[in-house]
Amino acid sequence: MPDERFTYAVREETVDGATRYFAAFRDGSDNPQETEIPREVYMALDDCRRHEQRQIRSDMRHIEQSLLSDEQLINRAEKPPAPLEEAISLSLDLRAALPLLTETQRRRFLLYHAHGLSYEQIAIVENCSERAIKYSVSAARQSLKKFFEG
Predict the structure, then answer these.
(1) Higher pLDDT, 35 or 72
(2) Staple partner for 97: which of 36, 38, 40, 147, CB 3.0–4.6 Å?
(3) In terms of residue numbers, what domain contains 60?
(4) Do 29 and 56 fall within a single domain?
(5) What mean pLDDT, rounded, does the chain reach?
(6) Cα end-to-end span (Å), the chain
(7) C-alpha distance from residue 44 to each of 39, 47, 48, 90 (Å)
(8) Each residue's pLDDT tens digit, 140-150
(9) How far apart are CA 19 and CA 30, in angstroms?
(10) Do 93 and 141 fall within a single domain?
(11) What is the pLDDT of residues 97-142, one digit of tens each?
(12) How far is CA 19 from CA 11, 13, 39, 93, in A?
């Protein structure tokens, strides 16, 4: 069972052009079980699982807001704003460069730099390791650096 957050998993298997659908779960004795299911049941379980995943991601985004420490909130409030002309110029340049990044790099870069989240907080929201977040943000920085230097 690939994801421990769910009590079941569904998969499809195609052999010689025939598609079969399976549900995996643990029985009352905590033994793994798998059974073949009709396509309609597979589709319903898959839709339910996707809905659960969306709900978990939504919950994590809301929880992330409560993870900010008092110090981080104070630092955000005390950060002096950039002069208007500088902010507009940087915003336009950055806006032109952001499409060069992958969707994941762009999202993680903005969460880190624009929203002030830590690598750890982003990793919680994205359900991945801090190392993956650091790598994405670093790769985004390198791409943006090349854009601005070129």
Answers:
(1) 35
(2) 147
(3) 8-65
(4) yes
(5) 80
(6) 48
(7) 9, 5, 6, 47
(8) 989 888 887 86
(9) 28
(10) yes
(11) 888 889 999 889 888 887 888 899 999 988 999 999 999 999 998 9
(12) 10, 6, 9, 50
8 A C-beta contact, residue 98 and residue 91: no
Give me the residue label for tokens 């909130």: 73
Location of structure tokens 């969460």:
111
Q: Quick one: 57 and 97 in the same domain?
A: no
Kindly report, residue by residue over 51-68, the tens digit of the pLDDT: 888 888 877 777 666 666
Please check whether residue 23 is in contact with residue 42, taking contact to mean a CB–CB distance below 8 angstroms.
Answer: yes
Q: Which tokens go with 129?
A: 């390791």
Distance separating alpha carbons of residues 70 and 76, to the nearest angstrom: 10
Judgement on whether residues 12 and 60 belong to the same structural domain of the protein: yes
Looking at the fold, whether 12 and 58 belong to one and the same domain comes out as yes
